[in-house]
# Entry
Amino acid sequence: MTRIVIVGGGTGGTVLANRLVENLDHEVEAGEVEVTLVNDSPDHVYKPTFLYVPFGKKTTDDAVRPLADLVDRRVDLEINRVVDIDTDAKAVELQDGRDTLSYDHLVLATGAKLVPDEIPGLVEGGHHFYGAEGAEQLRDALADFDGGHLVLTVVGVPHMCPAAPVEFTLMADEWFRQRGIRDEVEITYTYPIMRLHGLESVSNWMEPRFEARDIHTETFFNAEAVDPEAGVISSMEGEELDYDLLVAIPPHAGDDLIADSGLGEDGWVAVDRHTLEADHAEDVYAMGDAADVPTSKAGSVAHYEADVVADRIASEVRGQLPTATFDGKTVCFIEAGMDEATFVEFDYEHSPDPRDESRPVHWAKLAYNESYWLTARGLL
# Structure
């Protein structure tokens, strides 16, 4: 019996589990291969939905489906948390004290977590839209906001969905215009390096659009602390910004399990960027946000990586030399307001080239958001 254990039931882990039992259909049905997906929640969350919650376009319930409804019946779904990985013994320990799960192949898709408490005052003084509770609280704050200074600050990189802060800023601008209060609102966008985005071509696309919409920008602004009572955010560079409403992209970190297991610093698994094999253990892969590869932490990346890892493991199970490789392919939609969008496509060798925004691309993004659940099931 060949045992494949996947840790993490987000986009990457779910797509991978379904791909594996499809690719290894004969072996699974014959009882020669067992695929186990371990997730610490019975729910699967599609996080891009949260961007629309603050503007009343989606609810947090729209982002959630039972994981059991998305996973092929041939996958052994284990709702539990992995608390230890022993790569020498090739076993993972579960939180509830049950016997450990042994594996022949292990895939880590443990994702990223928010750590806003790394910035003093940020939890008390700032909002975000990277989770259900945060998105709902921001929705309520925006509903009460009828004027003043809104600051969108990107606190640290890497973070999930690098386009999200750009999208939120442009969507907020148009949303205020639709409400007839844009003249009463000042918007400032900050970024921690000397341009508006980590991808230079995206930064170049942003500059004229922000200027045309009177969105102020502060680059090389690395947030250090927030004073909620005074309504001030200060940077390591000695700058201060007054705010009436602060929206932050919080610092992100990987799972402590990764660092504790010696597989990578800060919870990001050190991997070969093409094969996605772990640098510090045999028969271990990592993918999605957990993998330390030089591209975006985005759902499309996890999806493409899942295809590669599924092909490689299937080859290994059959005693064949795996040849599938990941080229860094990434596809991201970028909302440019409430009813127009663009998109970028790039990989390790090619830079993105954002097109002019349009309504058809906006509707294409919304259509994909609705069809995502088919993607998670492995049908798209």
Observations:
- The first strand starts at residue 2 and ends at 7.
